[in-house]
């Protein structure tokens, strides 16, 4: 009996040791899981923190670069505008100097040589007329085709006034001066 009790005690001790080993193994597994959870959570939190900091720095660098690029572009555009305006001003100055050097004779020559173009431009709309219907009351004495001729004469009569407005010179006086110069030249040629 005593042997049986001792055997049973040994079995109980073995079962207790096995149970203690199982408890210890369970405790080790729990402790491992706790460590893994604690370390991994901390590492995950740290990783997210580092990613957030990196993303924020990337955004900051991108915004700074975009701002610098925009500022550089605006500065370049402003400098280009200044250069363009300076060039236009210089061109205007050169043009003004050239015009100042022109004598009255050059201005008159330019006006006279361009006068046919001016008259042509004034008469051009009449060239596009396909059909004319004349309605005349006969009050001013001109009727029919004579009325058209009269209107053309009025247009042509405006040319000397236009010349005078542009040049500041009377066309009749100018022609008289040209005729007088021609007579002088012819007289000088006959003496020689």
What keyword list fits this structure?
0% strand; mainly alpha; 192 residues
Radius of gyration in whole Å, from Cα?
Answer: 55 Å
Tell me the structural class.
mainly alpha
Order of helices and strands: HHHH
Strand content: under 5%
Number of H- or I-type helical stretches: 4
Total beta strand runs:
0
Binned, the helix content reads over 70%
The major sheet is characterized as: none
Overall residue-averaged pLDDT value: 81
Oligomer: single chain
Model description:
The protein has helices at 2-101, 104-127, 145-167, 171-191. With 192 residues, it is mainly alpha-helical. The protein folds into 2 domains: 1-101; 103-191, no CATH class. Helix 2 (104-127) packs antiparallel against helix 3. It is rod-shaped, with a radius of gyration of 55 Å.
């Amino acid at each position: 009996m005593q042997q049986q009790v001792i055997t049973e005690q040994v079995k109980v001790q073995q079962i207790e040791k096995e149970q203690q080993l199982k408890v210890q193994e369970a405790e080790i597994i729990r402790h491992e899981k706790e460590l893994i959870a604690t370390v991994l959570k901390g590492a995950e939190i740290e990783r997210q923190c580092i990613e957030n900091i990196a993303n924020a720095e990337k955004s900051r660098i991108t915004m700074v670069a975009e701002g610098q690029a925009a500022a550089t572009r605006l500065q370049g555009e402003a400098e280009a505008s200044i250069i363009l305006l300076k060039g236009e001003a210089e061109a205007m100055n050169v043009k003004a100097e050239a015009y100042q050097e022109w004598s009255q004779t050059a201005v008159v020559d330019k006006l006279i040589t361009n006068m046919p173009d001016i008259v042509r431009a004034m008469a051009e709309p009449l060239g596009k007329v396909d059909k004319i219907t004349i309605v005349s009351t006969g009050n001013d004495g001109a009727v029919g085709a004579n009325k058209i001729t009269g209107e053309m004469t009025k247009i042509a009569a405006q040319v000397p006034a236009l010349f005078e407005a542009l040049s500041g010179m009377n066309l009749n006086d100018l022609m008289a001066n040209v005729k007088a110069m021609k007579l002088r030249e012819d007289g000088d040629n006959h003496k020689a």
